[in-house]
Amino acid sequence: MKSDVCMKLLNLGCGSRYHASWTNIDFVSTCEAVVAHNLLQGIPMENECFDVVYHSHVLEHFTKIDGELFLQECYRVLKPNGIIRIAIPDLEQIAREYLKNLELALQGNEKAKHNYNWIMLEMYDQVVRSKSGGDMAAYIFQPTIPNEEYVFERIGEEGRNLRKFYLSSLDKINIENEENTDKRSLLRKFFSKIKQALKKIIYNDNKNLTYTNLGKFRLGGEIHQWMYDRFSLTQLLTKIGFKDVRVNTAFTSAIAEWNKFELESKDGVIFKPDSLFIEAHK
Ligand SMILES: C[S@@+](CC[C@H](N)C(=O)[O-])C[C@H]1O[C@@H](n2cnc3c(N)ncnc32)[C@H](O)[C@@H]1O
Questions:
Q1: Is residue 186 within 8 Å of 174, Cβ to Cβ?
Q2: 158-215 pLDDT tens trace
Q3: Whose CA is nearest to atom 4 of ligand 1?
Q4: Which residues are 256's β-sheet partners?
Protein backbone atom coordinates (compact mmCIF):
# COMPACT_ATOMS: atom_id res chain seq x y z
CA MET A 1 0.00 0.00 0.00
CA LYS A 2 1.12 3.59 -0.63
CA SER A 3 3.12 5.37 2.09
CA ASP A 4 1.22 7.21 4.87
CA VAL A 5 2.22 10.62 3.42
CA CYS A 6 -0.80 10.50 1.13
CA MET A 7 -2.90 7.93 3.01
CA LYS A 8 -5.96 8.96 4.95
CA LEU A 9 -6.06 7.07 8.25
CA LEU A 10 -8.87 6.91 10.81
CA ASN A 11 -8.48 5.70 14.41
CA LEU A 12 -11.82 5.26 16.19
CA GLY A 13 -12.18 5.11 20.00
CA CYS A 14 -8.48 5.93 20.20
CA GLY A 15 -8.28 6.55 23.97
CA SER A 16 -4.66 7.42 24.71
CA ARG A 17 -3.37 5.54 21.64
CA TYR A 18 -3.37 8.06 18.84
CA HIS A 19 -0.93 9.32 16.22
CA ALA A 20 -0.66 12.72 14.57
CA SER A 21 -0.79 11.19 11.06
CA TRP A 22 -4.25 9.78 11.82
CA THR A 23 -7.69 11.30 12.34
CA ASN A 24 -8.35 10.18 15.91
CA ILE A 25 -11.83 10.08 17.42
CA ASP A 26 -13.07 9.37 20.94
CA PHE A 27 -15.93 10.40 23.27
CA VAL A 28 -13.80 13.19 24.70
CA SER A 29 -10.99 15.17 23.15
CA THR A 30 -7.97 14.91 25.43
CA CYS A 31 -5.77 16.98 23.07
CA GLU A 32 -5.74 18.69 19.68
CA ALA A 33 -5.09 15.41 17.85
CA VAL A 34 -8.34 13.84 19.11
CA VAL A 35 -11.80 14.77 17.81
CA ALA A 36 -14.68 14.38 20.30
CA HIS A 37 -17.62 12.39 18.98
CA ASN A 38 -20.03 9.67 20.10
CA LEU A 39 -19.51 6.84 17.62
CA LEU A 40 -22.94 5.42 18.42
CA GLN A 41 -24.23 8.34 16.35
CA GLY A 42 -22.22 7.14 13.33
CA ILE A 43 -18.87 8.27 11.94
CA PRO A 44 -18.91 12.01 11.14
CA MET A 45 -17.11 11.62 7.78
CA GLU A 46 -18.00 11.57 4.08
CA ASN A 47 -18.45 8.30 2.17
CA GLU A 48 -15.29 6.61 0.88
CA CYS A 49 -12.76 9.10 2.18
CA PHE A 50 -10.31 6.89 4.19
CA ASP A 51 -7.66 4.40 3.08
CA VAL A 52 -7.58 2.80 6.54
CA VAL A 53 -10.10 2.55 9.37
CA TYR A 54 -8.76 1.19 12.65
CA HIS A 55 -10.23 0.51 16.05
CA SER A 56 -8.70 -1.26 19.01
CA HIS A 57 -10.73 -2.61 21.94
CA VAL A 58 -13.80 -0.59 20.96
CA LEU A 59 -16.20 -2.95 19.16
CA GLU A 60 -16.76 -5.12 22.26
CA HIS A 61 -18.12 -2.05 24.09
CA PHE A 62 -21.10 -1.88 21.72
CA THR A 63 -24.15 -4.13 21.77
CA LYS A 64 -24.27 -6.79 19.07
CA ILE A 65 -26.65 -4.62 17.00
CA ASP A 66 -24.72 -1.38 17.51
CA GLY A 67 -21.50 -3.24 16.69
CA GLU A 68 -22.86 -4.26 13.31
CA LEU A 69 -24.08 -0.71 12.58
CA PHE A 70 -20.67 0.61 13.59
CA LEU A 71 -18.88 -1.77 11.19
CA GLN A 72 -21.30 -0.72 8.42
CA GLU A 73 -20.22 2.86 9.10
CA CYS A 74 -16.57 1.81 8.87
CA TYR A 75 -17.36 0.23 5.49
CA ARG A 76 -19.11 3.39 4.31
CA VAL A 77 -16.21 5.75 5.06
CA LEU A 78 -13.56 3.43 3.56
CA LYS A 79 -12.41 3.94 -0.04
CA PRO A 80 -12.82 0.91 -2.34
CA ASN A 81 -10.08 -1.60 -1.47
CA GLY A 82 -9.39 0.32 1.76
CA ILE A 83 -8.31 -1.62 4.85
CA ILE A 84 -10.15 -2.13 8.11
CA ARG A 85 -8.00 -3.27 11.05
CA ILE A 86 -9.66 -4.38 14.28
CA ALA A 87 -8.01 -5.32 17.56
CA ILE A 88 -10.35 -6.88 20.08
CA PRO A 89 -10.19 -9.15 23.15
CA ASP A 90 -10.06 -12.68 21.74
CA LEU A 91 -13.02 -14.70 23.02
CA GLU A 92 -11.48 -17.91 21.64
CA GLN A 93 -8.27 -17.48 23.63
CA ILE A 94 -10.18 -16.58 26.79
CA ALA A 95 -12.37 -19.68 26.38
CA ARG A 96 -9.33 -21.90 25.75
CA GLU A 97 -7.55 -20.49 28.82
CA TYR A 98 -10.71 -20.99 30.87
CA LEU A 99 -11.06 -24.65 29.90
CA LYS A 100 -7.34 -25.40 30.26
CA ASN A 101 -7.15 -23.89 33.74
CA LEU A 102 -10.47 -25.36 34.84
CA GLU A 103 -9.26 -28.86 34.01
CA LEU A 104 -5.89 -28.38 35.73
CA ALA A 105 -7.52 -26.73 38.75
CA LEU A 106 -9.88 -29.70 39.11
CA GLN A 107 -6.78 -31.91 39.25
CA GLY A 108 -5.51 -29.78 42.16
CA ASN A 109 -2.92 -27.71 40.29
CA GLU A 110 -2.38 -24.65 42.53
CA LYS A 111 -1.07 -22.38 39.79
CA ALA A 112 -4.04 -23.19 37.57
CA LYS A 113 -6.45 -22.29 40.42
CA HIS A 114 -5.10 -18.73 40.40
CA ASN A 115 -5.08 -18.56 36.62
CA TYR A 116 -8.68 -19.80 36.61
CA ASN A 117 -9.66 -16.96 38.98
CA TRP A 118 -8.04 -14.43 36.68
CA ILE A 119 -9.52 -15.72 33.43
CA MET A 120 -12.99 -15.70 35.02
CA LEU A 121 -12.45 -11.97 35.61
CA GLU A 122 -11.44 -11.44 31.99
CA MET A 123 -14.53 -13.30 30.84
CA TYR A 124 -17.18 -11.95 33.22
CA ASP A 125 -16.02 -9.05 35.36
CA GLN A 126 -15.65 -6.85 32.29
CA VAL A 127 -19.27 -7.61 31.39
CA VAL A 128 -21.04 -7.52 34.77
CA ARG A 129 -19.13 -4.91 36.78
CA SER A 130 -20.97 -1.91 38.18
CA LYS A 131 -17.89 0.13 39.22
CA SER A 132 -14.98 1.39 37.19
CA GLY A 133 -12.11 -1.10 37.22
CA GLY A 134 -14.32 -3.78 38.76
CA ASP A 135 -12.80 -6.88 40.37
CA MET A 136 -9.95 -6.85 37.84
CA ALA A 137 -8.57 -3.66 39.37
CA ALA A 138 -9.01 -5.13 42.87
CA TYR A 139 -6.99 -8.17 41.74
CA ILE A 140 -4.14 -6.03 40.41
CA PHE A 141 -4.20 -3.77 43.49
CA GLN A 142 -3.81 -6.55 46.06
CA PRO A 143 -0.59 -6.73 48.13
CA THR A 144 0.71 -9.82 46.30
CA ILE A 145 -0.59 -11.13 43.00
CA PRO A 146 -0.31 -14.93 43.25
CA ASN A 147 0.10 -15.36 39.48
CA GLU A 148 1.63 -12.04 38.45
CA GLU A 149 3.48 -13.53 35.48
CA TYR A 150 0.29 -15.02 34.03
CA VAL A 151 -1.71 -11.82 34.53
CA PHE A 152 0.92 -9.70 32.76
CA GLU A 153 1.29 -12.27 30.02
CA ARG A 154 -2.45 -11.88 29.44
CA ILE A 155 -2.89 -8.10 29.72
CA GLY A 156 0.66 -6.92 29.01
CA GLU A 157 2.04 -3.44 29.46
CA GLU A 158 -1.22 -1.95 30.64
CA GLY A 159 -1.41 -4.35 33.58
CA ARG A 160 2.25 -3.76 34.41
CA ASN A 161 1.69 -0.01 34.41
CA LEU A 162 -1.31 -0.30 36.73
CA ARG A 163 0.74 -2.45 39.09
CA LYS A 164 3.61 0.07 39.00
CA PHE A 165 1.14 2.83 39.82
CA TYR A 166 -0.17 0.86 42.79
CA LEU A 167 3.30 0.09 44.12
CA SER A 168 4.48 3.68 43.70
CA SER A 169 1.36 4.87 45.58
CA LEU A 170 2.41 2.59 48.43
CA ASP A 171 5.88 4.14 48.41
CA LYS A 172 4.45 7.65 48.36
CA ILE A 173 2.30 6.97 51.40
CA ASN A 174 5.31 5.56 53.13
CA ILE A 175 7.53 8.57 52.42
CA GLU A 176 5.03 11.38 52.77
CA ASN A 177 2.99 10.39 55.77
CA GLU A 178 4.90 8.37 58.27
CA GLU A 179 8.56 8.51 57.52
CA ASN A 180 9.59 7.15 60.89
CA THR A 181 6.98 4.48 61.29
CA ASP A 182 7.72 0.82 60.81
CA LYS A 183 7.00 -0.09 57.17
CA ARG A 184 5.06 -3.19 58.08
CA SER A 185 2.56 -1.37 60.23
CA LEU A 186 2.19 1.22 57.48
CA LEU A 187 1.49 -1.45 54.91
CA ARG A 188 -0.99 -3.08 57.26
CA LYS A 189 -2.76 0.25 57.68
CA PHE A 190 -2.81 0.85 53.94
CA PHE A 191 -4.15 -2.59 53.12
CA SER A 192 -6.81 -2.37 55.78
CA LYS A 193 -7.88 0.96 54.26
CA ILE A 194 -8.09 -0.66 50.82
CA LYS A 195 -10.05 -3.55 52.33
CA GLN A 196 -12.47 -1.14 53.98
CA ALA A 197 -12.87 0.80 50.73
CA LEU A 198 -13.54 -2.39 48.80
CA LYS A 199 -16.04 -3.55 51.42
CA LYS A 200 -17.75 -0.20 51.10
CA ILE A 201 -17.86 -0.52 47.34
CA ILE A 202 -19.16 -4.07 47.44
CA TYR A 203 -21.69 -3.81 50.29
CA ASN A 204 -22.71 -0.20 50.97
CA ASP A 205 -22.27 1.46 47.60
CA ASN A 206 -23.95 -1.35 45.74
CA LYS A 207 -26.81 -1.20 48.22
CA ASN A 208 -27.22 2.52 47.67
CA LEU A 209 -26.50 2.58 43.97
CA THR A 210 -29.42 4.18 42.24
CA TYR A 211 -30.69 2.84 38.97
CA THR A 212 -29.58 6.10 37.37
CA ASN A 213 -25.99 5.76 38.54
CA LEU A 214 -25.89 2.14 37.53
CA GLY A 215 -27.33 3.01 34.11
CA LYS A 216 -24.84 5.86 33.66
CA PHE A 217 -21.95 3.54 34.41
CA ARG A 218 -23.23 0.64 32.32
CA LEU A 219 -23.82 2.93 29.33
CA GLY A 220 -20.57 4.87 29.83
CA GLY A 221 -18.45 2.77 27.46
CA GLU A 222 -16.37 0.77 29.97
CA ILE A 223 -18.15 -2.57 30.05
CA HIS A 224 -18.07 -5.24 27.36
CA GLN A 225 -21.42 -5.79 25.66
CA TRP A 226 -20.47 -8.48 23.17
CA MET A 227 -17.43 -10.64 22.42
CA TYR A 228 -15.91 -11.94 19.19
CA ASP A 229 -13.55 -14.62 17.95
CA ARG A 230 -11.93 -15.13 14.54
CA PHE A 231 -14.98 -17.07 13.32
CA SER A 232 -17.75 -14.67 14.37
CA LEU A 233 -15.85 -11.54 13.38
CA THR A 234 -15.00 -13.00 9.95
CA GLN A 235 -18.69 -13.89 9.48
CA LEU A 236 -19.79 -10.39 10.44
CA LEU A 237 -17.20 -8.59 8.29
CA THR A 238 -18.11 -10.77 5.33
CA LYS A 239 -21.83 -10.11 5.85
CA ILE A 240 -21.14 -6.36 5.71
CA GLY A 241 -19.25 -6.76 2.44
CA PHE A 242 -15.60 -6.88 3.47
CA LYS A 243 -13.32 -9.36 1.71
CA ASP A 244 -9.90 -10.98 2.29
CA VAL A 245 -10.45 -11.24 6.05
CA ARG A 246 -7.13 -12.19 7.68
CA VAL A 247 -5.88 -12.76 11.20
CA ASN A 248 -2.67 -10.82 11.88
CA THR A 249 -0.29 -10.34 14.80
CA ALA A 250 0.30 -7.00 16.49
CA PHE A 251 3.29 -6.54 14.16
CA THR A 252 1.89 -7.68 10.81
CA SER A 253 -0.39 -5.62 8.62
CA ALA A 254 -1.25 -4.66 5.06
CA ILE A 255 -1.12 -1.03 6.29
CA ALA A 256 2.10 0.59 5.06
CA GLU A 257 4.66 1.17 7.83
CA TRP A 258 2.18 -0.08 10.44
CA ASN A 259 4.70 -0.55 13.25
CA LYS A 260 6.02 2.99 13.07
CA PHE A 261 2.68 4.34 14.38
CA GLU A 262 3.18 2.43 17.65
CA LEU A 263 -0.55 1.94 18.13
CA GLU A 264 -0.26 -1.70 19.22
CA SER A 265 3.39 -2.15 20.17
CA LYS A 266 6.58 -0.29 20.90
CA ASP A 267 10.12 -1.69 20.74
CA GLY A 268 8.68 -5.16 20.20
CA VAL A 269 6.42 -5.02 23.29
CA ILE A 270 2.71 -5.57 22.56
CA PHE A 271 0.38 -3.29 24.53
CA LYS A 272 -2.61 -5.66 24.52
CA PRO A 273 -1.42 -9.26 24.03
CA ASP A 274 -4.90 -10.67 24.76
CA SER A 275 -6.08 -9.31 21.39
CA LEU A 276 -7.29 -10.80 18.17
CA PHE A 277 -5.91 -8.67 15.32
CA ILE A 278 -8.01 -8.87 12.17
CA GLU A 279 -7.83 -7.04 8.85
CA ALA A 280 -10.05 -7.01 5.79
CA HIS A 281 -10.48 -5.02 2.59
CA LYS A 282 -13.48 -3.16 1.26
C1 LIG B 1 -10.78 0.08 26.00
S2 LIG B 1 -10.58 1.69 25.37
C3 LIG B 1 -9.44 1.41 24.03
C4 LIG B 1 -8.63 2.64 23.72
C5 LIG B 1 -7.59 2.46 22.63
N6 LIG B 1 -8.19 2.25 21.34
C7 LIG B 1 -6.66 1.33 22.97
O8 LIG B 1 -6.63 0.32 22.26
O9 LIG B 1 -5.96 1.45 23.99
C10 LIG B 1 -12.10 1.98 24.53
C11 LIG B 1 -12.19 3.40 24.00
O12 LIG B 1 -13.35 3.51 23.20
C13 LIG B 1 -13.99 4.74 23.51
N14 LIG B 1 -15.41 4.63 23.22
C15 LIG B 1 -16.26 3.68 23.67
N16 LIG B 1 -17.50 3.93 23.22
C17 LIG B 1 -17.41 5.06 22.44
C18 LIG B 1 -18.35 5.82 21.71
N19 LIG B 1 -19.64 5.50 21.67
N20 LIG B 1 -17.91 6.91 21.05
C21 LIG B 1 -16.62 7.28 21.09
N22 LIG B 1 -15.68 6.59 21.77
C23 LIG B 1 -16.08 5.50 22.45
C24 LIG B 1 -13.72 4.95 24.99
O25 LIG B 1 -13.86 6.31 25.36
C26 LIG B 1 -12.29 4.44 25.10
O27 LIG B 1 -11.34 5.44 24.89
A1: yes
A2: 888 889 988 888 777 666 565 556 666 777 777 777 767 666 666 556 666 678 888 8
A3: 15
A4: none
Nearest atom of ligand 1 to the alpha carbon of 87: 8
Q: Domain ranges in the chain?
A: 9-90+229-281, 92-218
Closest atom of ligand 1 to CA, residue 11: 6
Distance of CA 137 to the CA centre of its chain: 13
Q: What is the pTM of this model?
A: 0.85
DSSP calls for 205-248: IHHH--HHHHHHHHTTT-S----B-HHHHHHHHHHHT-EEEEEE
As a 3-state breakdown, the chain gives helix, strand, coil percent values, each rounded to 5, of 50, 15, 35
Hey, whose CA ends up nearest to atom 24 of ligand 1? 13
CA distance 214 to 33: 32
Top CATH class of 9-90+229-281 equals: alpha beta
- Identify whether the C-beta of residue 54 lies closer than 8 Å to the C-beta of residue 88: no
CB 119 within 8 A of CB 98: yes
Ligand 1 neighbour 13 (Cβ under 6 A): yes
Q: Does residue 14 have its Cβ closer than 6 Å to ligand 1?
A: yes
